[in-house]
């Protein structure tokens, strides 16, 4: 394991798992994957606190009663009022003293990731901290509070409900805490990478999604990611981006205009609509297209991730998802690509039809007749009404797709499908309207759906989102269709 990539803040040095394990593995093979690539690729350094330290914190502060509390704010208060272990605080002080001030991202890594189980992002949303300011004690406290907030969220009501539906043993509830140093440059009053991208492959098909600024699809309204095929061109992105405000403390993400971002002088390409005249404020619009790193028909970034993701798949022999940042290198100033996350995943649509359960010892969402031959594994189930907000629903489906998850969509009208395009996350289409069976899409007609074992996840604008901790299996063998947990 490369010591400059994985740093343990708790001296436990136990076996890592989930995305930390795969990221450390790819770090050890980085030279063979990336040594001859056109663009320089670096791995963002991460620091880890293992689950053992979370349990130790609970034991030391007699917080065992916390699992019986039902008020999330009370749970958070209990965690925040106690100090971290001295060994962790000492390592954290060294960590903060030896780094340049700037953003930190604190989030969780779940043991089930090694079994293809991912947690909804709403359970452990990433905590952005702007680590700056003259008061070192205050800087330390901000990071400490971020770490304890992750531990507290393990016992929040939605997390406990999810774990229990997953039938996860209590001793496996605790997560690893991952502190990432994104090294995003400061642009005016904000921090952000030039672009963030997610690329995935199942060994047959490669796909990518790219967005200016930070990759947080659930936190944006106007900044729509651009889909692309790795190895091909990338069309110009949206007029806005997600930026991190530069004020010290817990970070605030906000959407800003890329026209404003261009005045910071660090975007590698401008936004200029057709017909606009060049002006002194648009000096960057004169860059030659061949110098483009990301956008355009000859995108160097697209070519690089195409090579990387194919080599990574061959190395692991499993479908993989990789997250990237593109931004200036803090040392050289050259535009570089940074790998921020890397993990394996299970494609929601298997290559063969799933076998039906041999016994009725499962929970069925539905049983019905069907002449389709299909199979799917889905984490999400979404009920869509005719008046659903199309843009909001499409953003959600794109986000789920690039989490590597699938969706069973229940609709009552086919009109919405034409507006959604063809999201790769949709692994099953069902409807209670028998007339839709005549439609060209692969519909399964159902009379009744049993959602008792699903967890309500989100109420959207005209749609309801449910999540299944253990995943929904769907199979149709040409005569009957079943969906079960």
Molecular structure report:
- By secondary structure, the chain is an alpha+beta fold.
- The protein has three domains: 6-181, 2-Layer Sandwich (Dna Ligase, domain 1), CATH 3.30.1490; 191-346, 2-Layer Sandwich (D-amino Acid Aminotransferase, Chain A, domain 1); 364-484, Glucose Oxidase, domain 1 (3-Layer(bba) Sandwich).
- The chain is 24% helix and 28% strand.
- It is built from eleven helices and 24 strands.
- It has helices spanning 18-28, 30-34, 51-60, 72-80, 86-97, 136-153, 157-165, 258-263, 300-316, 390-401, 415-420, and strands spanning 6-8, 41-43, 46-49, 102-109, 127-131, 176-180, 186-187, 190-191, 195-201, 206-212, 226-228, 240-245, 249-250, 253-257, 320-328, 335-344, 364-369, 373-384, 407-410, 426-431, 443-445, 455-459, 463-477, 480-484.
- The strands form four sheets. Strands 17, 18, 19, 20, 21, 22, 23 and 24 form an eight-stranded mixed sheet that branches. Strands 1-3-6-4-5-13 form a six-stranded mixed sheet. A six-stranded mixed sheet has the order 2-16-15-9-10-11.
- Residues 265-291 have low confidence and may be disordered.
Q: Identify the quaternary structure here.
A: single chain
CATH class of the largest domain: Alpha Beta
| Biggest sheet features | 8 strands, mixed
* Cα separation of the termini: 38 Å
Secondary structure elements and pairings:
Layout (H helix, E strand, L loop, with lengths): L5 E3 L9 H11 L1 H5 L6 E3 L2 E4 L1 H10 L11 H9 L5 H12 L4 E8 L17 E5 L4 H18 L3 H9 L10 E5 L5 E2 L2 E2 L3 E7 L4 E7 L13 E3 L11 E6 L3 E2 L2 E5 H6 L36 H17 L3 E9 L6 E10 L19 E6 L3 E12 L5 H12 L5 E4 L4 H6 L5 E6 L11 E3 L9 E5 L3 E15 L2 E5 L1
């Amino acid at each position: 394991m490369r010591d400059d990539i994985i740093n343990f803040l708790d001296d436990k040095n136990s076996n890592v798992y989930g995305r930390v394990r795969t990221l450390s593995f790819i770090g050890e093979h980085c030279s063979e994957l990336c040594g001859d690539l056109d663009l320089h690729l670096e791995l963002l350094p991460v620091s880890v606190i293992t689950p053992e330290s979370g349990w130790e914190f609970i034991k030391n502060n007699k917080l065992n009663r916390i699992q019986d509390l039902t008020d999330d704010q009370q749970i958070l208060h209990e965690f925040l009022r106690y100090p971290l272990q001295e060994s962790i605080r000492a390592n954290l002080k060294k960590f903060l003293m030896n780094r340049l001030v700037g953003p930190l991202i604190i989030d969780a890594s779940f043991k089930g990731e090694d079994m293809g189980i991912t947690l909804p992002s709403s359970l452990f949303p990433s905590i952005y901290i702007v680590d700056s300011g003259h008061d070192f004690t205050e800087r330390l406290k901000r990071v400490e509070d971020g770490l304890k907030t992750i531990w507290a969220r393990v016992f929040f009501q939605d997390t406990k409900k999810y774990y229990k539906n997953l039938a996860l043993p209590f001793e496996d509830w605790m997560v690893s805490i991952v502190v990432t140093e994104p090294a995003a440059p400061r642009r005016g009053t904000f921090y952000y990478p030039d672009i963030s991208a997610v690329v995935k492959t199942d060994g047959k098909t490669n796909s990518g999604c790219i967005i200016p600024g930070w990759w947080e699809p659930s936190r944006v309204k106007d900044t729509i990611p651009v889909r692309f095929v790795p190895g091909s061109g990338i069309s110009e992105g949206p007029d806005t981006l997600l930026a991190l405000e530069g004020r010290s403390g817990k970070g605030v993400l906000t959407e800003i205009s890329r026209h404003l971002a261009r005045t910071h002088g660090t975007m590698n390409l401008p936004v200029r609509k057709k017909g606009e005249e060049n002006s002194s404020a648009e000096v960057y619009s004169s860059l030659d297209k061949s110098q483009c790193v990301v956008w355009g028909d000859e995108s160097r970034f697209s070519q690089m991730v195409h090579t990387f993701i194919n080599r990574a798949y061959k190395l692991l022999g499993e479908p993989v998802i990789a997250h990237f940042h593109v931004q200036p290198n803090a040392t050289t100033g050259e535009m570089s690509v940074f790998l921020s996350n890397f993990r394996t995943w299970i494609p929601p649509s298997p290559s063969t039809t799933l076998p039906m359960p041999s016994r009725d010892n499962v929970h069925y969402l539905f049983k019905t007749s069907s002449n389709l031959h299909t199979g799917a594994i889905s984490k999400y189930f979404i009920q869509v009404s005719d008046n659903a907000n199309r843009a909001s629903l499409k953003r959600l489906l794109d986000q789920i797709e690039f989490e590597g998850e699938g969706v069973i969509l229940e609709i009552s009208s086919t009109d919405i499908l034409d507006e959604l395009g063809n999201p790769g996350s949709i692994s099953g289409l069902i409807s209670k309207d028998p007339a839709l069976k005549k439609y060209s899409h692969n519909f399964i007609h159902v009379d009744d759906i049993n959602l008792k074992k699903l967890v309500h996840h989100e109420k959207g604008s005209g749609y309801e989102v449910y999540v299944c901790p253990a995943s929904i299996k769907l199979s149709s063998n040409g005569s009957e269709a079943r969906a079960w947990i």
